Amino acid sequence: MADAEQIVIVGASLAGATAAEALRKDGWSGGIVLIGSEQSLPYERPPLSKGVLLGKDETTSAQLHDQQWYDDNHIDLRLGATVTALDPAAHTVTLDDGSQVSYTKLLIATGSRVRKLDVPGADLPGVHYLRTAEEAQALTDAYAAKPRVVVVGAGWIGLEAASAARERGCEVTVVEPQSTALAGVLGEEVGELFAEFHRQHGVQFRFGAGVEGFEGTDKVTGVRVDGEVIPADLVVVGVGVQPNTELAEAAGIEVATPENGSGIVAGADLQTSVADVYAAGDVVRWDHPLFGRFVRVEHWQNAKDTGASAAKAMLGQDVAHDAIPFFFTDQFDLGMEYAGDVPRGTSYQVVLRGDPKSGAYEAFWLDDDHHVLAGMHVNTWGATDGIRDLIRSGKQVDPARLADSSVDLADV
Ligand SMILES: Cc1cc2nc3c(=O)[nH]c(=O)nc-3n(C[C@H](O)[C@H](O)[C@H](O)COP(=O)(O)OP(=O)(O)OC[C@H]3O[C@@H](n4cnc5c(N)ncnc54)[C@H](O)[C@@H]3O)c2cc1C
């Protein structure tokens, strides 16, 4: 491509900024325009629900680069700017100030937004969500007064918000309609290990219970659950996210329905259904060459990996993005890493390796033919490479040997 040409990236967060960095590393000397709705320099979100909520880190410490870095790399970073329309035929994007920017290649990295609860009282002051640096700052400031906290949703964000609140001396109750924590992502058996771990740290749970509404006049004072009111000075809602696909859809780019997992549909090279338009991060649902099915992942490593792969693909390199999905979390003194993908509705068997009561163990999800679909470790650092190798090998394993921690993972 000639130097006068430019690559436009919509969404200035982890996937978008990683793509911009990779473009320069891979030798692209043309223009790069990185456009983001948020005012802050691009930042990573995982520290928001960990060091920031614990009151240990500033939100600015999560920034990927300072402004000088964007200047030095000739990246035209436009913050506080929202793209309102894409025109694939004209190769332009339109911004909310009415201006247009033309592109040679376009990357959509618009990420996700939180799902909002639609119940009475949902707009009361004291009801918090957690996606942005501003929201994390507001929550960590509020935790300082040691409020009684009710967390809605026992998923990753809910449990991290609960753990930070406990560590800062708050009373915490988590309300969750499913039968235990993380049931949707880890299944009931392993999810219950997390719930029990939280109980040991003083977190109370109300499982099988949906929130009917929030009480209060000037601010939230309670959460109505099954006709009963749980007193609360502060509520954190963590009921999942949805990908920002509307721009793509309006431009005629193929988007998966919610029943099919949502997201912008892309090939293994992360190119969408429209030429010269790519997608990366939480928003992309791509044809995974190793799994032989479409996958969408709402995690940090995936934003980095797909951002870097999309950059290569936009530069014309051969890309078949086959990274194994990876996720990590920190809660109290628990550090966990998970690799793999268990599609919803798959029948699986869980194999535990090591004693969960010891606080250090592994768990594996096997399909009916004993192939490893996914694995995680809790506080057994260094296990992830072995887990990835087992998945990538596609070989059948003997569950008894897998469960035996005296057998090296490489020999299972
Ligand atoms: C509090 C928190 C903790 C997390 N912890 C972990 C963790 O421990 N481990 C883990 O693996 N993952 C974690 N995640 C998930 C991880 O942060 C996300 O997967 C990652 O941020 C996705 O990056 P992204 O760049 O695809 O999208 P996003 O981070 O969602 O960013 C998309 C950006 O695009 C902007 N945008 C959207 N539409 C437009 C538009 N039309 N014009 C301009 N800009 C637009 C948005 O404002 C946003 O800044 C956490 C997420 C949160 C919120």
TrEMBL record:
It comes from Kribbella pratensis. Pfam families: Pyr_redox_2, Reductase_C. Keywords: Dioxygenase, FAD, Flavoprotein, Oxidoreductase. Its cofactor is FAD. Residues 326-411 form the Reductase C-terminal domain. This is 3-phenylpropionate/trans-cinnamate dioxygenase ferredoxin reductase subunit. Gene3D superfamilies: 3.30.390.30, FAD/NAD(P)-binding domain. The keyword ATP-binding does not apply. InterPro entries: FAD-oxidoreductase/Apoptosis, FAD/NAD-bd_sf, FAD/NAD-binding_dom, FAD/NAD-linked_Rdtase_dimer_sf, Reductase_C. Coiled coil: none annotated. One of its GO terms (molecular function) is dioxygenase activity. Residues 6-307 form the FAD/NAD(P)-binding domain.
